[in-house]
Design a protein that fits this description.
This protein is an all-alpha fold. The chain has helices at residues 10-29, 51-69, 79-107, 117-135, 140-166, 174-197. Residues 31-59 and 61-71 have low confidence and may be disordered.
Length: 229
């Protein structure tokens, strides 16, 4: 409550009243610091990492590790494709040689003829349990070693079929052994081709000849007169 002295002259009382009102208005117009809301400072935006960035980084790291594990091989082909194709050939050869041995044995089943099952059984075990998992592993060194083992097994199988063909007597027909020989030859060329073409094995280059071979010029029709008289 504001009281004014009534003993003051009227003009002075009016001036004091106007000054008091102006003081109140200035206090209302100026905001108090306690009720002033200061906007928060902008924080630095955190870097946004998308799932594509994470996936790209992960795939790059996997590719780098895979490249380090196969640094001694210059591989032009995809290891997954090589593992798929060569793995099917490896397991297919194991199935075919076992089928050929059983077919040959049941043509004339006997204890003495059971020896035809031995090479096929050993080859199937090696192909299925050793070279097969190595070829399908996807690692360059393992794939190369698995292909080498499969090539060696197909070579030994071919030798066993040749021994059966040259034997003076065979309880079963030799056409079956000849079919097995063809399969072994096909397996040998398939596995060896994968070794060479896919860059696992580098063949030595032949030295250049110390002399030049004579050239034979073939007529390509340059001397023929094609003008119309």
């Amino acid at each position: 409550v504001i009281s004014f002295d009534n003993n003051l002259p009227r003009p002075k009382r009016n001036m004091k009243c106007i000054a008091t009102i102006a003081l109140y208005l200035s206090a209302i117009a100026t905001p108090s610091e306690a009720f002033t809301v200061t906007p928060p400072a902008c924080k630095a935006a955190a870097p946004i990492v998308s799932y594509r960035t994470v996936a790209s980084t992960s795939s790059t790291a996997t590719a780098d590790n895979r490249h380090k594990s196969s640094s001694r091989y210059a591989l032009p082909a995809d290891l997954d494709t090589v593992a798929l194709v060569a793995g099917q050939e490896n397991y297919g050869l194991a199935v075919v040689v076992v089928g050929e041995a059983l077919w040959s044995f049941f043509q004339a089943p006997s204890v003495s003829h059971a020896k035809v099952l031995v090479p096929a059984s050993v080859a199937a075990v090696v192909l299925a349990a050793v070279s097969g998992p190595m070829i399908t592993s996807g690692d360059a060194s393992s794939v190369a070693l698995g292909l080498e083992i499969a090539t060696g097994v197909s070579t030994l199988l071919g030798a066993s079929y040749v021994a059966r063909l040259v034997a003076p007597y065979s309880p079963s027909s030799k056409e079956i052994a000849f079919f097995g020989l063809l399969v072994a030859i096909a397996g040998f060329f398939s596995f060896s081709q994968n070794l060479v073409v896919d860059g696992f094995v580098t063949l030595p280059t032949l030295p250049s000849l110390p002399f030049s071979l004579p050239e034979i010029r073939l007529g390509l029709g340059e001397d023929i007169d094609t003008s119309i008289p």
